[in-house]
Specification:
Layout: H1 3-27, E1 52-54, E2 59-60, E3 69-75, H2 80-93, E4 100-104, H3 108-117, E5 123-127, H4 131-136, E6 147-152, E7 157-162, H5 168-176
Parallel strand pairs: 3-4, 4-5
Antiparallel strand pairs: 1-2, 1-5, 3-6, 6-7
Helix pairs in contact: 2-5
Subcellular location: Cell envelope
Domain Thioredoxin: 44-178
Keywords: Cytochrome c-type biogenesis, Disulfide bond, Redox-active center, Signal
Amino acid sequence: MTGKNLLAGICFTAGLSFAVLGALHHSHHGGHHDDHSHRPAETTFDILKAPLATLNGSKTTLGASAPALRLVNFWATWCTPCRQEMPLLDKAANIANVPFVGIAVDQTTLVKKFISEKPVTYDIFTSSFDIFYFFQNNDNKTGIIPYTVLLDNKGNIKASKLGEFHSVEEILTFIESV
């Protein structure tokens, strides 16, 4: 197994583990069952209404601003391929004709520290593990990150990519595919 495949496998496994742990947390809340603690895998999940946190701690949603099309990259500080593609995403964000957003499935304090050391020009938010319901309802059933989608202003996925981008050109081609 090559180093890249091993890293991808680790991120895949970590993503899957967090998705399963998140699902278990919701279905086994406090050892008792109530209607608010269980969410079926195929539940409706509106990405535009999903609660996000800015790095300064305020709350927002993707629906707060709804451009015709935007690139949304899901990542985490512990995911090596995610960290490796961020400089490429940053360069592409300054060239592309669509806004970019990064959503970290991670703790805000860790993301804030990481971004202070390796800043990007596009907006970065953090999300709870509930974001994995968005993955499950679309083409990322196993929770692989990095995961990048092109979203329209209604929250529909126009294109998606599981795994890491390897060049600015690859990112621009991904955007132009829509």
